[in-house]
Amino acid sequence: MTDAEWDRLRPFLPVSNGRCGRWRDHRQVIDGILHRVRTGVQWRDLPERFGPWKTAYERHRLRSAEGTRERLLQQVQAAADAAGEIDWDIAADSTVVRAHQHAAGARTEPPPAPASKGAEVVEHRCETSWRSLLARLVEVVQEVRACAARAPGSPANST
């Protein structure tokens, strides 16, 4: 954390009341937590320059459970927004927002209406899914043949 970032963050951190002993330096512990978040290292493998790993772990766990992290984030965001330092215009595309795994292959047409009791069902559901699978397989084979027919030096199109 840079000195400018630390100076901005320090006013929002809790102060020791003196009854519970001496606290480890907030900056050292926060740097340890940030190091773990960035690198994904296990708590026990935190470098010694961040102090005891258990201190960083406990402080992170307690502050997360009591909501201090969320309040801290809200306060820092509000201060930065008031100073005009946040650009709230964002753009999201399919590279950022991924569809859920169950969203693939959803129906595009409504399901068929239920047949009356005496009516004969011409097509079963499983036959319909096999037909759509077969149609997709034909499309894939055609795409592969088109790619194979293309000149070796031409760029490939990806879908």
Automatic annotation (TrEMBL):
UniProt xrefs under Pfam families: DUF4096
All copies of domain Insertion element IS402-like, residue ranges: 1-72
NCBIfam families, per database record: transpos_IS5_3
Record-given protein name: IS5 family transposase
